[in-house]
Write a structure and sequence with these properties.
The protein is mostly beta strands. The protein has two helices and eight strands, in the order αββαββββββ. The chain has a single domain, classed as Bacteriophage SPP1 head-tail adaptor protein (Thrombin, subunit H), CATH 2.40.10.
Length: about 130
């Protein structure tokens, strides 16, 4: 099977998907002697397809790995923003419908040897 062109995947996500906010957290060491760090958060608007977890999904995972309120997020492998490449990664945050979610699992979907899509398990952040 031939890999679909990147522009086609972007077009599909823009037409059926929604805009979400990607929160990238970077940690900078501010005191090497005591190991103190400072976190900086940068946000980006990206297109994604977000779906609720179903009871059928919950049957295929060990108890507690997927919980009620979790979501599946479908993302492009790479987003180009202002000439820079960004990927959705573990421990990033996604804001969807004003609710913040933590990326706790990522599965890459392959066609031939190319990553064409990333599926992420999003866990709702309580207290945000």
């Amino acid at each position: 099977m031939k890999r679909p062109p990147d522009w086609k995947l972007k077009k599909i996500l823009k037409s059926i998907g929604t805009t979400v906010t990607l929160h990238k957290i970077t940690e900078t060491e501010i005191d090497s002697e005591f190991g103190m760090t400072e976190e900086t958060e940068t946000t980006y608007s990206i297109s994604a397809e977000i779906q609720s977890i179903t009871l059928e999904d919950m049957r295929f995972f060990p108890a507690g790995e997927i919980v009620e309120g979790d979501l599946w997020g479908y993302f492009l492998p790479v987003y180009q923003i202002d000439g820079e490449d960004y990927r959705v990664q573990l421990n990033d945050y996604i804001t969807f419908k004003s609710v913040k979610y933590l990326v706790v699992r990522i599965e890459d979907e392959f066609m031939n040897s190319d990553t064409v899509l990333r599926r992420a398990l999003l866990r709702r952040v309580v207290g945000e």
